[in-house]
Amino acid sequence: MAAMMVNKEPTLDGVIFFIVNKKYNHAKLAQSGKNDGDIGTYELRRNIDQLWRLEADPGRPQRYYINNVKHDGFRLAKYGRGDSCICCYNKNYNIDQLWHFVKHGDYFRIYNVKHPEAKLAKYGKRDSDLCTFEGRDVDDQLWKLVPFIDVVLEKRILWHVDNRQGKRDVTLELCLTHGMKLTKKSPIAKVSNSVKFSAAVEISKLVKVGEGSLQHITELESQIGSDIEKESTEVRKETFTAPAGINFRVWQWQIEFNSLLAEVDVGGTVYTNNVQTEVIP
Fold first, then answer.
1. Cβ–Cβ under 8 Å, residues 230 and 181
2. Is residue 1 part of a domain?
């Protein structure tokens, strides 16, 4: 299972992406049908056949199968040495279907494992202009992994009372939600790691600028279950007191997640167990 990492790059295993070329920055890797040669790119609207799930090979660290989401069982493969020897394949697993992702800034070069000098490339504007190339490095060999899950991480204010002019404490009982609540259920399986990946990216940004408690932020990972379809929430009551003379608030971290693709319309909210109190200057 993919784990959330805040101090290093989150793992790619099990995560679903659009794979977008740098030079032709609207061109997304796509599989248009179930024939071996139905592989290329597409520049117009997003479709489910442009979604790819990376699957780590257990015997080769950091080597991945690139699986099409719409055409289940099909993997990107390089069946020979020639630049044009690239296809999608759904029979026996082989080393020529494994790929190594080497990071270059916000992009990756994607190398075939059997043919280690061969990089996935888009040599022209046409959708069919997809190949591999063993020569010098250029921008048409760079690809951006765009998560299909969009995440917003924010503080949810549960109660705020400015009691600086007050002479007495103010007490309130709150109903607190914990766990994960779905608003839209995914029509495809195995999307939990995609939610975790997008959440990890946002959490890393927050930790870098010193926002919040690392302990409480990373707790969100455990509340994104291995099966996103099985939501689990709990509501409990807790009493809070705003002391006299204090500007006081109660809050908790929450993650809101939604799909970027209408065909795979999944969404929900994750609430931390730990609720925070804060004195505001």
1. no
2. no
